[in-house]
TrEMBL record:
Highest taxon of source: Bacteria
Organism from which the protein derives: Pontibacter aydingkolensis
SUPFAM superfamilies in the record: FAD/NAD(P)-binding domain
PANTHER family according to UniProt: 4,4'-DIAPONEUROSPORENE OXYGENASE, PHYTOENE DESATURASE
Protein name: Phytoene desaturase
Signal peptide: none
Length: 498
């Protein structure tokens, strides 16, 4: 049987293993850690359950698609509920907005709370949908790095809205052009952080992101985000995929211009196809030391990382929901701290995810599991101990004021995750959450392709390569790999007497 080896059991690697198994490959996934999931881990602190990494789940059909592809009924493995409201937004001036799932209701709320005309909100959501529909087939669903992508009717669709693509303006410029209320602009600008970018630098094209959350929806998986990885590993194993844990890959083996397999901490394995779900920078630096690395691609600026405080809070806050945002007062300065000064603003925007709002069993009665996150630069040798201590203080001060409660005495469990830990746990270069940032208009084209144009049989998936980071894009990267990988021709044993 034709063998495929996948390096890493992050969500992209798991999805790629399923697609290759369905295609007929004999697939083995090698994972350095003791379990699957990569950034998508879960843990308990006392009686509080936490998803360690991703918290927002959009485009669930991309998960369902994997079960359907394998001839299974998705709901036998994985179920989820649409969130409504999606997010509670809070500003220092005391205003707040509930982002309802229904567009009309959301527009009415924005009008009531911020005075923004309802029709303008609806128009912004419609424009986001139009941008998505015009561009997704070209920019997200296919390799951007193959000629046949461009000889395709979908490209004509993308070209027809080229003037509206926002490639020459920033997200912020586009949003500020449409709205005068700085709070609503901030709400829309925030979507740049969904791929670790800066709205003051990222192209207006990224204004497709609100469509995913507001028009398609935000969802909570039963069992938490971790259930996505767990249910897909169950499927992969049923399809015959082998997972080898605690087995880090040390080198990708090659002969001439083809891959021949890989070498792990324990043995050498032959493979016709190798898929790296490891961050593309260490894939070249550590696993392919004798190959010429694509320096321009590897040196693209990294996306932001995260500083997270997981807090078990012994009280409930009825004014909070699953996703909550407490905005900074000066968004531009906050992003300058992250991307220019490589530091953290003393007044950071604070995101709190509380999954016990969706599933009360995830915290003790009368308590809540707070995942408190601040966007920070990737690790470039900063003093994280000091930055963490300062930021913890700033976050507490901000929440005390905006929630009119002294938070520190309510924290009965605590753990911290910083960029150094993210890097050491997953090999993501600098602990960046989404590979390279999208802080320039060519960023989409400068991401590493999903295949190697130097080594036959070598493919790439996951957040550091095309089309980008975040659960949906990692799943799409695996889909592209599945489509690019060669067809498997099995030798059919015909009965002797036939
Ligand atoms: C704090 C945080 C918050 C986030 N929030 C969101 C969110 O709300 N919504 C969203 O959609 N996304 C979010 N993301 C991003 C999302 O989690 C990632 O884009 C996605 O999970 C990355 O998946 P991946 O396939 O790239 O693999 P990764 O998760 O990066 O996993 C790679 C795997 O490869 C393994 N590996 C590395 N090197 C080797 C080797 N040499 N040999 C064997 N195995 C190796 C690693 O151990 C790891 O398990 C967040 C991420 C973090 C960290």
């Amino acid at each position: 049987m034709t063998k495929a080896a996948v390096i890493g059991a992050g969500i992209g690697g798991i999805a790629a293993s399923i697609r290759l198994a369905v295609k007929g490959f004999d697939v083995t996934v090698f994972e350095a850690n003791e379990t699957f999931g990569g950034k998508m881990q879960e843990f308990w602190l006392g009686k509080y359950r936490f998803d360690a990494g991703p918290s927002l789940f959009t485009m669930p059909h991309l998960v369902d698609e994997l079960f359907t592809l394998a001839g299974r009924n998705p709901s036998d493995y994985f179920t989820y509920t649409r969130l409504d409201p999606i997010t509670h937004y809070f500003w220092a001036d005391g205003s707040h907005v509930k982002a309802y799932a229904n567009g009309d209701k959301f527009a009415a709320e924005v009008n009531q709370q911020l005075g923004v005309p309802e029709q303008a909100v609806m128009d912004a959501l419609a424009k986001s949908a139009q941008l998505y529909k015009g561009t997704a087939d070209t920019f997200l669903h296919k390799s951007l790095h193959r000629l046949d992508t461009y000889i395709n009717p979908d490209v004509l669709k993308a070209l027809s809205c080229l003037s509206d693509l926002g490639l020459t303006t920033t997200m912020h410029q586009e949003n500020a052009k449409q709205f005068s209320d700085h709070r609503f602009v901030q709400l829309l600008d925030r979507f740049a952080t969904y791929n670790g970018s800066d709205p003051y630098q990222a192209p207006g094209t990224l204004n497709i992101i609100p469509h995913l959350e507001h028009n398609i929806g935000a969802f909570y998986p039963d069992g938490g985000i971790y259930a996505i990885a767990a249910s897909l590993v169950k499927l992969a194993e049923e399809l015959g995929v082998t997972f080898k844990y605690n087995e880090a890959v040390k080198q990708i083996l090659t002969s001439g211009k083809s891959v021949t397999g890989l070498e792990t901490s324990q043995a050498k394995y032959k493979a016709d196809v190798v898929v790296s779900n490891m961050d593309v920078v260490p894939t070249y630096r550590r696993l392919l030391p004798n190959q010429k690395a694509p320096e321009k691609t590897l040196q693209q600026p990294r996306s932001s990382s995260a500083l997270i405080f997981y807090w078990g809070i012994k009280r409930t806050f009825p004014e909070l929901h699953v996703h909550n945002i407490f905005f900074s007062q000066d968004y531009k300065t906050e992003f300058e701290h992250i991307f220019k000064h490589k530091s953290i603003s003393p007044d950071p925007t604070v995101y709190i995810n509380i999954t016990s709002k969706a599933d009360p069993q995830e915290a003790p009665a009368g308590s809540e599991n707070w995942f408190v996150m601040v966007n920070v630069p990737h690790n470039q040798g900063q003093d994280w101990e000091q930055l963490t201590a300062d930021t913890r203080q700033a976050v507490l001060q901000k929440l005390n004021k905006m929630l009119k409660t002294d938070i520190a005495p309510l924290i009965e469990e605590e753990r911290v995750l910083d960029p150094i830990l993210i890097e050491s746990k997953t090999s993501s270069f600098g602990g960046a959450l989404y590979g390279s940032s999208s802080n320039n208009r060519m960023a989409a084209f400068l991401r590493h392709p999903n295949f190697s144009n130097k080594l036959k049989g070598l493919y790439f998936c996951g957040g550091s390569v095309h089309p980008g980071g975040g659960i949906p894009l990692c799943l799409l990267s695996a889909k592209i790999v599945g489509e690019l990988a060669p067809a498997v021709h099995h030798v059919v044993n015909t009965p002797k007497h036939a």
